[in-house]
Amino acid sequence: MNNTFKLIDADTVTDLKAFLQRAKRLDPDGLVRLRAFGSILAAYVAPIFAGSLMDSGPTILGLRTCELAETAEVDAVVPISAVLDRLARVINEDFIDLTVEMPASQRAVWAGISPPRQGWAQVGIINETRLTKIARDGIDEVANSLPESVGGPIAARIRGEIWGRGIDLETKVPTGAAFAAAGLGFLTENEEVGLYEAEGWVRLSSEHGHVLAKASTKF
User: Fold this and answer.
1) What is the pTM of this model?
2) What's the pLDDT at 93?
3) Residue 219 falls within a domain, yes or no?
């Protein structure tokens, strides 16, 4: 495995930085899984995730890909803040060298939950306005369901119940997928977002990124 990767141009650096900044706002201590086996770098984040593999709460992954200037083999889970620091250094060097050094790898429970890479079939579309409304309604419901005195496992359970609930029986997309799509900046006004299914997973794919989650069984 390589301990560095080289982005193809300045716009790609800026794009990856913007994506990770949004992910950090959703989870200030969050991690990103960086994977590359060739010329494409895949960056996975988990704005919503269960605390353990036995937890019944949802795990919602956000995925953004970008092009590399050189082929690389990378697979590591690293702090978002550390990657942002390294991207900032590249930008400050006027893009003379677009090589990014990998931070030290860490462990993340959600990184062991791997969605399928093949076998996806499009089953429909969902308009951005609907997803945005679902995200806003979910945020309000979480806020109204969590008194200030509630914390820890109880708060996690309540959030899990809200974000893990399907938006309808037909699509089985968890509410949290809409929240992630909106929060990660994947939605463009009035865009038709593709809905895909594969092996018990659902995926929302827009022009700006993908959200992947296990199909919801709660409604």
Assistant:
1) 0.93
2) 60
3) no
